[in-house]
Amino acid sequence: MWKYVFPGIAMIGVVFAFARFSFGLFLPNISQSIDLTESNAGFVGSLAFASYSLALLSSAYLIQKYGQLRIIKFAGWSAVIGLAGIAFSQNFSSLALSSFVAGLGSGWASPAYAQIVGSTFKKKDKDSGNTWINSGTSFGLIISGPIALFFTDHWRLAFILFAAIAFVVTLWNSKIFSATNASDSNGSKINWRVTVNKAKFLLCASLITGISSSIFWTFSRSYLTAVHEMTNGESVMFWVLMGASGILGGIAGGFINKFGLSLAYRLTLVFMQIAIWIITLPGVLTIYSSGILFGISYIFMTGIFIVWATRIFSDSPSLGVSLSFLFLGIGQSIGSTIAGTTIAAFSYPFSFTLFSLIGLIGLLVPVERLVEDGS
Protein backbone atom coordinates (compact mmCIF):
# COMPACT_ATOMS: atom_id res chain seq x y z
CA MET A 1 0.00 0.00 0.00
CA TRP A 2 2.64 2.52 1.03
CA LYS A 3 4.43 2.20 -2.29
CA TYR A 4 1.45 4.00 -3.81
CA VAL A 5 0.48 6.17 -0.82
CA PHE A 6 3.79 8.07 -0.61
CA PRO A 7 3.77 9.43 -4.18
CA GLY A 8 0.08 10.19 -3.70
CA ILE A 9 0.83 12.23 -0.58
CA ALA A 10 3.52 14.13 -2.49
CA MET A 11 1.20 14.93 -5.40
CA ILE A 12 -1.63 16.14 -3.15
CA GLY A 13 0.88 18.35 -1.36
CA VAL A 14 2.02 19.82 -4.68
CA VAL A 15 -1.40 20.49 -6.21
CA PHE A 16 -3.04 21.85 -3.03
CA ALA A 17 -0.35 23.46 -0.84
CA PHE A 18 1.90 24.71 -3.67
CA ALA A 19 -0.34 25.25 -6.69
CA ARG A 20 -3.50 26.37 -4.90
CA PHE A 21 -2.71 27.82 -1.46
CA SER A 22 0.79 29.33 -1.82
CA PHE A 23 -0.43 32.33 -3.83
CA GLY A 24 -1.96 33.81 -0.67
CA LEU A 25 1.29 33.36 1.29
CA PHE A 26 3.21 35.48 -1.23
CA LEU A 27 0.42 37.87 -2.21
CA PRO A 28 1.89 41.07 -0.67
CA ASN A 29 5.18 40.64 -2.53
CA ILE A 30 3.50 39.55 -5.78
CA SER A 31 1.17 42.56 -5.64
CA GLN A 32 4.11 44.92 -5.17
CA SER A 33 6.15 43.39 -8.00
CA ILE A 34 3.36 43.26 -10.60
CA ASP A 35 1.48 46.31 -9.26
CA LEU A 36 -1.74 44.43 -8.54
CA THR A 37 -4.76 46.21 -7.13
CA GLU A 38 -6.80 44.51 -4.42
CA SER A 39 -9.55 43.78 -6.94
CA ASN A 40 -7.03 42.24 -9.35
CA ALA A 41 -5.61 40.07 -6.58
CA GLY A 42 -9.12 38.97 -5.62
CA PHE A 43 -9.86 38.09 -9.24
CA VAL A 44 -6.72 35.94 -9.49
CA GLY A 45 -7.75 34.15 -6.29
CA SER A 46 -11.24 33.54 -7.66
CA LEU A 47 -9.78 32.10 -10.88
CA ALA A 48 -7.95 29.46 -8.83
CA PHE A 49 -11.28 28.47 -7.26
CA ALA A 50 -12.97 28.51 -10.69
CA SER A 51 -10.37 26.18 -12.20
CA TYR A 52 -10.59 23.89 -9.16
CA SER A 53 -14.38 23.69 -9.58
CA LEU A 54 -14.10 23.15 -13.34
CA ALA A 55 -11.61 20.34 -12.81
CA LEU A 56 -13.87 18.67 -10.23
CA LEU A 57 -16.86 18.91 -12.57
CA SER A 58 -14.89 17.43 -15.45
CA SER A 59 -12.96 14.79 -13.48
CA ALA A 60 -15.56 12.01 -13.68
CA TYR A 61 -15.86 12.38 -17.46
CA LEU A 62 -12.09 12.67 -17.99
CA ILE A 63 -11.38 9.63 -15.82
CA GLN A 64 -13.92 7.63 -17.81
CA LYS A 65 -12.40 8.80 -21.10
CA TYR A 66 -8.66 8.74 -20.33
CA GLY A 67 -8.31 6.67 -17.15
CA GLN A 68 -7.26 7.74 -13.67
CA LEU A 69 -3.54 7.14 -14.26
CA ARG A 70 -3.42 9.69 -17.07
CA ILE A 71 -5.47 12.21 -15.07
CA ILE A 72 -2.89 12.10 -12.28
CA LYS A 73 -0.28 13.04 -14.86
CA PHE A 74 -2.54 15.85 -16.12
CA ALA A 75 -2.80 17.13 -12.55
CA GLY A 76 0.96 17.09 -12.06
CA TRP A 77 1.78 18.83 -15.33
CA SER A 78 -0.86 21.51 -14.73
CA ALA A 79 0.89 22.28 -11.42
CA VAL A 80 4.32 22.40 -13.08
CA ILE A 81 3.17 24.69 -15.89
CA GLY A 82 1.03 26.89 -13.64
CA LEU A 83 3.68 27.36 -10.96
CA ALA A 84 6.38 28.12 -13.54
CA GLY A 85 4.00 30.56 -15.22
CA ILE A 86 3.41 32.38 -11.91
CA ALA A 87 7.17 32.57 -11.34
CA PHE A 88 7.75 34.32 -14.68
CA SER A 89 4.57 36.43 -14.81
CA GLN A 90 5.21 40.06 -15.68
CA ASN A 91 1.65 41.38 -15.65
CA PHE A 92 -1.84 40.73 -14.37
CA SER A 93 -2.97 38.74 -17.44
CA SER A 94 -0.13 36.20 -17.36
CA LEU A 95 -0.49 35.83 -13.60
CA ALA A 96 -4.24 35.20 -13.88
CA LEU A 97 -3.78 32.59 -16.64
CA SER A 98 -1.02 30.82 -14.71
CA SER A 99 -3.09 30.76 -11.53
CA PHE A 100 -5.99 29.22 -13.44
CA VAL A 101 -3.77 26.47 -14.89
CA ALA A 102 -2.16 25.78 -11.50
CA GLY A 103 -5.56 25.33 -9.85
CA LEU A 104 -6.71 22.59 -12.22
CA GLY A 105 -4.54 19.89 -10.66
CA SER A 106 -6.19 20.12 -7.23
CA GLY A 107 -9.57 19.33 -8.79
CA TRP A 108 -8.30 16.37 -10.81
CA ALA A 109 -5.93 14.68 -8.35
CA SER A 110 -8.19 13.70 -5.41
CA PRO A 111 -10.88 11.96 -7.53
CA ALA A 112 -8.21 10.12 -9.53
CA TYR A 113 -6.47 8.82 -6.41
CA ALA A 114 -9.81 7.77 -4.92
CA GLN A 115 -10.44 5.76 -8.08
CA ILE A 116 -7.00 4.12 -7.91
CA VAL A 117 -7.41 3.23 -4.23
CA GLY A 118 -10.87 1.83 -4.93
CA SER A 119 -9.68 -0.40 -7.77
CA THR A 120 -6.21 -1.37 -6.48
CA PHE A 121 -6.09 -1.50 -2.67
CA LYS A 122 -7.38 -4.33 -0.51
CA LYS A 123 -10.68 -3.61 1.23
CA LYS A 124 -9.04 -3.31 4.66
CA ASP A 125 -6.58 -0.71 3.33
CA LYS A 126 -8.94 1.50 1.35
CA ASP A 127 -10.04 3.91 4.09
CA SER A 128 -6.52 4.35 5.44
CA GLY A 129 -5.06 4.70 1.95
CA ASN A 130 -7.53 7.44 1.04
CA THR A 131 -7.06 9.43 4.24
CA TRP A 132 -3.27 9.23 4.23
CA ILE A 133 -3.08 10.42 0.61
CA ASN A 134 -5.47 13.24 1.53
CA SER A 135 -3.09 14.36 4.31
CA GLY A 136 -0.60 15.40 1.64
CA THR A 137 -1.93 18.96 1.90
CA SER A 138 -0.47 19.17 5.40
CA PHE A 139 2.98 18.00 4.30
CA GLY A 140 2.88 20.60 1.54
CA LEU A 141 1.94 23.38 3.97
CA ILE A 142 4.85 22.40 6.23
CA ILE A 143 7.25 22.85 3.31
CA SER A 144 5.67 25.98 1.83
CA GLY A 145 5.68 27.90 5.15
CA PRO A 146 9.48 27.95 5.68
CA ILE A 147 9.98 28.64 1.96
CA ALA A 148 7.66 31.65 2.32
CA LEU A 149 9.80 32.94 5.19
CA PHE A 150 13.13 32.27 3.46
CA PHE A 151 12.08 33.71 0.07
CA THR A 152 9.93 36.58 1.35
CA ASP A 153 11.70 39.10 -0.89
CA HIS A 154 12.33 36.65 -3.76
CA TRP A 155 8.94 35.13 -4.44
CA ARG A 156 9.81 34.22 -8.05
CA LEU A 157 12.58 31.90 -6.84
CA ALA A 158 10.10 30.28 -4.45
CA PHE A 159 7.68 29.48 -7.28
CA ILE A 160 10.52 28.17 -9.44
CA LEU A 161 11.40 25.85 -6.55
CA PHE A 162 7.74 24.83 -6.23
CA ALA A 163 7.63 24.07 -9.98
CA ALA A 164 10.83 22.00 -9.75
CA ILE A 165 9.44 19.95 -6.87
CA ALA A 166 6.18 19.49 -8.80
CA PHE A 167 8.19 18.25 -11.81
CA VAL A 168 10.01 15.62 -9.73
CA VAL A 169 6.79 14.49 -8.02
CA THR A 170 5.02 14.16 -11.39
CA LEU A 171 7.84 11.96 -12.75
CA TRP A 172 7.73 9.87 -9.55
CA ASN A 173 3.98 9.31 -9.88
CA SER A 174 4.31 8.51 -13.59
CA LYS A 175 6.88 5.81 -12.82
CA ILE A 176 5.02 4.25 -9.87
CA PHE A 177 1.49 4.24 -11.24
CA SER A 178 2.35 3.23 -14.78
CA ALA A 179 3.32 -0.15 -13.30
CA THR A 180 0.00 -0.68 -11.50
CA ASN A 181 -2.83 -2.80 -12.81
CA ALA A 182 -5.50 -0.29 -11.76
CA SER A 183 -8.48 -0.53 -14.04
CA ASP A 184 -10.10 2.54 -15.52
CA SER A 185 -13.44 3.83 -14.35
CA ASN A 186 -16.43 2.25 -16.03
CA GLY A 187 -17.94 4.19 -18.87
CA SER A 188 -21.57 4.08 -17.83
CA LYS A 189 -23.56 7.27 -18.32
CA ILE A 190 -24.12 9.30 -15.15
CA ASN A 191 -27.69 10.09 -14.10
CA TRP A 192 -27.07 13.33 -12.23
CA ARG A 193 -30.49 13.56 -10.58
CA VAL A 194 -30.17 10.08 -9.09
CA THR A 195 -26.52 10.67 -8.21
CA VAL A 196 -27.14 13.92 -6.32
CA ASN A 197 -30.12 12.42 -4.49
CA LYS A 198 -28.01 9.44 -3.48
CA ALA A 199 -25.36 11.72 -1.97
CA LYS A 200 -27.63 14.47 -0.59
CA PHE A 201 -26.55 14.12 3.05
CA LEU A 202 -22.86 14.02 2.14
CA LEU A 203 -23.26 17.14 -0.03
CA CYS A 204 -25.12 19.00 2.76
CA ALA A 205 -22.34 18.14 5.22
CA SER A 206 -19.67 19.24 2.72
CA LEU A 207 -21.43 22.55 2.01
CA ILE A 208 -21.87 23.43 5.70
CA THR A 209 -18.27 22.51 6.49
CA GLY A 210 -17.08 24.61 3.55
CA ILE A 211 -19.01 27.66 4.76
CA SER A 212 -17.84 27.40 8.38
CA SER A 213 -14.17 26.68 7.53
CA SER A 214 -13.92 29.47 4.93
CA ILE A 215 -13.41 32.24 7.48
CA PHE A 216 -10.41 30.41 8.96
CA TRP A 217 -8.70 29.76 5.61
CA THR A 218 -9.32 33.27 4.33
CA PHE A 219 -9.08 35.55 7.36
CA SER A 220 -7.19 33.80 10.18
CA ARG A 221 -3.80 35.32 9.29
CA SER A 222 -5.38 38.75 8.79
CA TYR A 223 -7.03 38.39 12.21
CA LEU A 224 -3.70 37.55 13.83
CA THR A 225 -1.94 40.59 12.38
CA ALA A 226 -4.82 43.07 12.62
CA VAL A 227 -6.27 42.19 16.05
CA HIS A 228 -3.66 40.12 17.88
CA GLU A 229 -0.83 42.23 16.36
CA MET A 230 1.34 39.27 15.42
CA THR A 231 4.37 39.77 13.20
CA ASN A 232 4.57 38.24 9.72
CA GLY A 233 6.92 35.56 11.03
CA GLU A 234 4.62 34.67 13.91
CA SER A 235 1.59 34.40 11.62
CA VAL A 236 3.52 32.20 9.17
CA MET A 237 4.54 29.98 12.11
CA PHE A 238 0.83 29.69 12.94
CA TRP A 239 0.28 28.52 9.33
CA VAL A 240 3.11 25.98 9.54
CA LEU A 241 1.82 24.55 12.84
CA MET A 242 -1.64 24.26 11.32
CA GLY A 243 -0.19 22.30 8.41
CA ALA A 244 2.02 20.09 10.56
CA SER A 245 -0.82 19.12 12.87
CA GLY A 246 -2.96 18.18 9.88
CA ILE A 247 -0.71 15.18 9.29
CA LEU A 248 -2.67 13.47 12.07
CA GLY A 249 -5.61 13.55 9.67
CA GLY A 250 -3.99 10.57 8.00
CA ILE A 251 -5.21 8.33 10.83
CA ALA A 252 -8.83 9.20 10.04
CA GLY A 253 -9.32 5.95 8.14
CA GLY A 254 -8.32 3.84 11.12
CA PHE A 255 -10.47 5.96 13.47
CA ILE A 256 -13.50 5.53 11.19
CA ASN A 257 -13.02 1.79 11.03
CA LYS A 258 -12.86 1.57 14.85
CA PHE A 259 -15.59 4.01 15.90
CA GLY A 260 -17.82 4.37 12.85
CA LEU A 261 -18.28 7.11 10.27
CA SER A 262 -21.12 8.90 12.08
CA LEU A 263 -19.25 9.36 15.37
CA ALA A 264 -16.05 10.36 13.56
CA TYR A 265 -17.94 12.99 11.55
CA ARG A 266 -19.72 14.51 14.56
CA LEU A 267 -16.69 14.62 16.85
CA THR A 268 -14.52 16.14 14.14
CA LEU A 269 -17.17 18.75 13.32
CA VAL A 270 -17.41 19.83 16.96
CA PHE A 271 -13.63 20.11 17.35
CA MET A 272 -13.41 22.15 14.13
CA GLN A 273 -15.95 24.66 15.41
CA ILE A 274 -14.11 24.89 18.74
CA ALA A 275 -10.93 25.66 16.80
CA ILE A 276 -12.67 28.42 14.82
CA TRP A 277 -14.01 29.99 18.01
CA ILE A 278 -10.98 29.88 20.33
CA ILE A 279 -8.90 31.99 17.95
CA THR A 280 -11.00 34.87 19.33
CA LEU A 281 -9.52 34.34 22.81
CA PRO A 282 -6.41 36.40 23.62
CA GLY A 283 -3.18 34.63 24.43
CA VAL A 284 -0.47 32.84 22.47
CA LEU A 285 -1.49 29.43 23.80
CA THR A 286 -5.11 29.68 22.66
CA ILE A 287 -4.17 31.19 19.29
CA TYR A 288 -1.69 28.46 18.39
CA SER A 289 -4.00 25.81 19.85
CA SER A 290 -6.67 27.08 17.48
CA GLY A 291 -4.38 26.59 14.47
CA ILE A 292 -3.27 23.12 15.59
CA LEU A 293 -6.81 21.96 16.33
CA PHE A 294 -8.12 23.36 13.05
CA GLY A 295 -5.32 21.71 11.07
CA ILE A 296 -6.07 18.32 12.59
CA SER A 297 -9.86 18.59 12.29
CA TYR A 298 -9.97 20.01 8.76
CA ILE A 299 -7.74 17.31 7.21
CA PHE A 300 -9.56 14.72 9.32
CA MET A 301 -12.90 16.00 7.99
CA THR A 302 -11.85 15.96 4.33
CA GLY A 303 -10.63 12.41 4.88
CA ILE A 304 -14.03 11.54 6.33
CA PHE A 305 -15.74 13.01 3.25
CA ILE A 306 -13.54 10.89 0.98
CA VAL A 307 -14.39 7.71 2.90
CA TRP A 308 -18.09 8.68 2.97
CA ALA A 309 -18.07 9.34 -0.79
CA THR A 310 -16.25 6.13 -1.70
CA ARG A 311 -18.69 4.07 0.37
CA ILE A 312 -21.69 5.62 -1.39
CA PHE A 313 -20.13 5.28 -4.84
CA SER A 314 -18.12 2.09 -4.47
CA ASP A 315 -18.22 1.48 -8.24
CA SER A 316 -17.06 5.01 -9.11
CA PRO A 317 -15.23 6.55 -6.13
CA SER A 318 -13.96 9.48 -8.19
CA LEU A 319 -17.52 10.69 -8.81
CA GLY A 320 -18.40 10.84 -5.11
CA VAL A 321 -15.15 12.59 -4.15
CA SER A 322 -15.60 15.12 -6.98
CA LEU A 323 -19.11 16.04 -5.82
CA SER A 324 -18.16 16.24 -2.14
CA PHE A 325 -15.12 18.46 -2.75
CA LEU A 326 -17.12 20.60 -5.21
CA PHE A 327 -19.73 21.35 -2.54
CA LEU A 328 -16.96 21.94 0.00
CA GLY A 329 -15.43 24.50 -2.39
CA ILE A 330 -18.78 26.13 -3.13
CA GLY A 331 -19.36 26.49 0.60
CA GLN A 332 -15.93 28.08 1.05
CA SER A 333 -16.61 30.54 -1.78
CA ILE A 334 -19.98 31.55 -0.31
CA GLY A 335 -18.60 31.65 3.21
CA SER A 336 -15.62 33.86 2.32
CA THR A 337 -17.93 36.46 0.78
CA ILE A 338 -20.23 36.45 3.82
CA ALA A 339 -17.28 36.54 6.23
CA GLY A 340 -15.76 39.58 4.56
CA THR A 341 -19.09 41.39 4.86
CA THR A 342 -19.67 40.51 8.52
CA ILE A 343 -16.10 41.42 9.50
CA ALA A 344 -16.50 44.83 7.86
CA ALA A 345 -19.94 45.38 9.42
CA PHE A 346 -19.22 44.02 12.92
CA SER A 347 -15.83 42.61 13.96
CA TYR A 348 -13.44 39.68 13.68
CA PRO A 349 -14.49 38.07 17.00
CA PHE A 350 -18.20 38.34 16.15
CA SER A 351 -17.67 36.80 12.70
CA PHE A 352 -15.52 33.89 13.87
CA THR A 353 -18.03 33.11 16.62
CA LEU A 354 -20.91 33.30 14.13
CA PHE A 355 -19.21 30.91 11.70
CA SER A 356 -18.42 28.42 14.45
CA LEU A 357 -22.13 28.35 15.30
CA ILE A 358 -23.06 27.95 11.62
CA GLY A 359 -20.80 24.90 11.45
CA LEU A 360 -22.67 23.21 14.28
CA ILE A 361 -25.73 23.00 11.99
CA GLY A 362 -23.85 20.11 10.39
CA LEU A 363 -24.64 18.01 13.46
CA LEU A 364 -28.21 17.76 12.13
CA VAL A 365 -27.05 15.98 8.96
CA PRO A 366 -27.66 12.21 9.24
CA VAL A 367 -25.16 9.55 8.23
CA GLU A 368 -26.99 6.59 6.76
CA ARG A 369 -26.50 3.24 8.49
CA LEU A 370 -25.52 1.61 5.19
CA VAL A 371 -22.72 4.13 4.69
CA GLU A 372 -21.55 4.00 8.30
CA ASP A 373 -21.17 0.24 8.18
CA GLY A 374 -19.32 0.44 4.88
CA SER A 375 -21.61 -2.19 3.41
From TrEMBL:
Key words of the record: Cell membrane, Membrane, Transmembrane, Transmembrane helix, Transport
Recorded topology in the membrane: Multi-pass membrane protein
Primary location recorded for the protein, binned into one broad class: membrane
Compartments, as annotated in UniProt: Cell membrane
Occurrences of domain Major facilitator superfamily (MFS) profile (ranges): 5-374
GO MF terms held by the record: transmembrane transporter activity
Source taxonomy: Bacteria, Bacillati, Bacillota, Bacilli, Bacillales
Gene Ontology CC terms, in alphabetical order: plasma membrane
Domain of life according to the entry: Bacteria
InterPro entries: MFS (IPR011701), MFS_dom (IPR020846), MFS_Efflux_Transporters (IPR050189), MFS_trans_sf (IPR036259)
Transmembrane region(s): 5-23, 43-63, 70-89, 95-119, 131-151, 157-178, 199-217, 237-256, 263-285, 291-313, 325-346, 352-371
Protein name: MFS transporter
